[in-house]
Design brief:
alpha+beta; Arc Repressor Mutant, subunit A; Alpha-Beta Plaits; 3 domains; seven-stranded mixed β-sheet; two-stranded antiparallel sheet; 14% strand; elongated; binds iron/sulfur cluster
Length: 339
């Protein structure tokens, strides 16, 4: 089998995710993430996977060699192995959530191929954000209002810190979008912190086994959330898996939302209400808003159609004029639950 054939077969496997509009960067990413032998094995393992015995039968490989290859691929983030299971199922990693979009950038600077991988991943993530995500056409994940800004009537399930409390153990990893961006374009990237991707529950166990995160306490996870908000990052995704802290310079979801105009992020349940009698029109909130939802003239006003309800505008208002209230029902759009 030629090199081209093995990677083409692997591309064909991933084509169930409708990747034709990002075919070139996808192929480049596959070549950076998989050796030729790994590409052949990943096709046989498939997304449905199997136990070691089942895969030995399927591939005809010697068992120890097969196990070693699968473990190496799992450490690279190209195979998923359920953590803490005696006879686990091994599966080829999917595309996203978690998938190849993220796993290469989660603490993965440990192989000779890591730097070329970061270049390929950055190119792939940009195309994923600006071409693949808009084609989905509906929100694929959600935004959380930062806990410090929550109004008194917020329910526990509207509080990302509260949801994370139920989902230990906790871990932190490098941002899988920011790290590739920084390495691919030195000197031409945001200045936000790198180690901000918060893992919970099974993802933490998986990340610890695969050396893709380090364990932290719940209290430290909440401190990181708060620091991210103060720095200007937006909390997104699922606190039962991982919470991203996104900027629109690097992160696929926020970049996709901002650059393409497609509503790929579901806003939180809350919107800012600005006390115009207190607002000094300093403009800090407008500068910080990642989606340009704030206009400042005599005082600041918010376009709630654009607003994500993230609370990035909240902590730096010098006159404490910003409070959050429940978003009116008619301006709510819902997350798509099948992507
Ligand atoms: S106005 Fe901007 S910064 Fe404030 S909550 Fe809305 S999207 Fe976030
Ligand atoms: S940061 Fe506060 S004071 Fe400044 S424009 Fe925004 S709401 Fe007004």
């Amino acid at each position: 089998m030629t090199t081209r054939d093995a990677y083409q077969d692997l591309y064909d496997l991933y084509s169930i995710f409708n990747v034709h509009m990002i075919a070139n960067p996808m192929m480049e990413l596959l070549r950076a993430q998989f050796t030729l032998e790994e590409a052949e094995l990943a096709v046989k393992v498939d997304f449905s996977g199997g136990t070691l015995d089942e895969l030995q039968q399927k591939t005809g490989m010697e068992k120890n060699k097969l196990k070693k290859m699968l473990e190496t691929m799992a450490d690279k983030g190209t195979v998923w192995i359920d953590p803490g299971v005696e006879n686990p199922v091994y599966k080829t990693m999917g595309l996203a959530g978690p998938g190849l979009v993220e796993t290469g950038g989660w603490g993965n600077i440990k192989y000779p191929h890591s730097v070329p991988l970061m270049h390929a991943l950055h190119k792939f993530e940009k195309e994923f954000a600006t071409k693949w995500l808009p084609a989905v056409g509906v929100p694929v994940t959600r935004v959380w209002l930062t806990p410090a800004a929550l109004p008194d009537d917020a329910k526990p399930e509207e509080n990302v810190a509260e949801m994370m409390k139920r989902s230990g153990p906790w871990g932190v990893s490098t941002c899988s979008c920011r790290l590739p961006h920084w390495i691919a374009t030195p000197g031409d990237h945001c200045e936000f912190p790198l180690e901000v991707c918060l893992f919970t529950s099974e993802m933490t166990k998986w990340g610890l086994e695969r050396n893709m995160c380090r364990e932290i306490t719940y209290e430290r996870a909440v401190e990181i959330l708060q620091q991210c908000n103060e720095d200007g990052l937006v909390h997104t995704h699922d606190p039962n898996e991982f919470v991203c802290n996104c900027c629109n310079d690097c992160c696929v979801m926020l970049m996709g939302h901002c650059v393409s105009g497609a509503k790929v992020l579901q806003h939180s349940e809350f919107i800012p209400r600005i006390d115009d009698s207190e607002c000094s029109a300093c403009g800090v909130c407008a500068e910080r808003c990642p989606v340009d939802a704030i206009t400042v003239e005599a005082f600041a006003t918010v376009d709630i159609e654009k607003c994500l309800g993230c609370g990035v505008c909240f902590p730096t208002c010098p006159t404490e004029s910003i409070q959050f209230v429940r978003r009116p029902e008619e301006t709510t759009f819902k997350e798509h639950d099948h992507v």
